[in-house]
């Protein structure tokens, strides 16, 4: 589940272990005892300028922070860790109480769990009440229940999963969602087209449906046209993208679209395809595929071999090649 992967990630960050968290290395900074100067060093006290306030055997915040930032340190995070992970570790040094226990759930605005074998988006995710971005790419999610998603979510990325049905996701979708990523899944049209409307996603700005199995261009466009805030759309990799008039029909049918299949839509292109949306008869049930072979390496060229002399008894070697395209 997402919760299990999240807890494993927290353990990997070691927010409660040296040099983070509370322990013998910083206990005098955060206890309620009286400081040597007669003041009180409670949570959040600024130790700057109080060098004598760091007892023997403890470490200053600066020294602890250096252990996190120095790439040669055994406590440094790997280079591929997110900036949020580094920020959490720094918080665990400077204000460890903010990331202890259930407090850590209120810190997360973004959560990335990629390629961890997650199959279920469980209700434990609701503990992250401030979560605005959820990235679950390259997992094994086939269904996602919208009731388990934080209501303030703005970005949901499910690329490279096994999602085949949007019904559960659209039961109670996050009302403020701005980006929905469903590329490289198992969605088929036209049964899923009805879930891609403003009734479910009134604030959607970006939608990725690439590399699924949408086939009905007219039906899909009729649903997408209700998304008044949609500016970015990715449909490449679907069978409908092979239709000769595919791009022109979409550009003219969705006048507010700014980017289609990662290509900006300019004024010239809009002018070129103007009126195409009123000619659906041009969309035929056929596809056009152009295959060109640039250069082939690693196979012998028969014409390069010297011709055998007349009467030679040397063996004759024949080369033949077969190229197969599967669609």
UniProtKB/TrEMBL annotation:
InterPro entries: Leu-rich_rpt, Leu-rich_rpt_typical-subtyp, LRR_dom_sf. The gene is Lrrc43. Keywords: Leucine-rich repeat, Repeat. It holds the Pfam family LRR_1. PANTHER family: LEUCINE-RICH REPEAT-CONTAINING PROTEIN 51, NISCHARIN RELATED. One of its GO terms (cellular component) is cytoplasm. This is LRC43 protein.
């Amino acid at each position: 589940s997402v919760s299990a992967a999240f807890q494993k990630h927290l353990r990997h960050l070691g927010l409660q272990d040296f040099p983070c968290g509370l322990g013998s290395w910083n206990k005098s900074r955060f206890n309620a005892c009286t400081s040597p100067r007669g003041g009180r060093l409670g949570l959040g006290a600024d130790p700057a300028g109080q060098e004598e306030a760091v007892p023997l055997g403890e470490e200053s915040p600066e020294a602890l922070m250096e252990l996190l930032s120095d790439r040669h340190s055994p406590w440094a995070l790997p280079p591929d860790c997110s900036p949020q992970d580094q920020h959490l570790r720094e918080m665990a040094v400077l204000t460890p109480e903010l990331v202890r226990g259930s407090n850590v759930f209120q810190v997360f605005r973004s959560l990335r769990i990629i390629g961890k074998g997650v199959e279920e988006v469980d209700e434990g995710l609701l503990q992250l009440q401030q979560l605005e971005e959820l990235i679950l790419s390259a997992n094994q999610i086939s269904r996602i229940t919208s009731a388990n998603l934080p209501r303030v979510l703005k970005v949901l990325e499910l690329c490279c999963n096994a999602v085949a049905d949007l019904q559960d996701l659209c039961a109670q979708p996050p009302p403020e969602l701005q980006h929905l990523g469903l590329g490289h899944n198992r969605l088929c049209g036209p049964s899923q087209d009805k879930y891609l409307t403003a009734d479910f996603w009134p604030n959607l700005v970006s939608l990725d449906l690439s590399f699924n199995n949408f086939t009905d261009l007219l039906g899909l466009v009729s649903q997408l046209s209700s998304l008044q805030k949609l500016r970015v759309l990715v449909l490449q990799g679907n069978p409908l993208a092979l239709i000769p008039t595919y791009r022109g029909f979409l550009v003219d049918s969705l006048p507010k679209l700014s980017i289609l299949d990662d290509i900006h839509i300019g004024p010239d292109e809009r002018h070129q395809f103007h009126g195409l949306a009123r000619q659906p008869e041009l969309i035929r049930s056929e596809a056009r595929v152009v295959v060109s072979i640039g250069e082939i390496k690693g196979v012998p060229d028969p014409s390069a071999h010297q011709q055998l002399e007349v009467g030679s008894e040397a063996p004759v070697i024949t080369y033949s090649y077969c190229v197969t395209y599967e669609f």
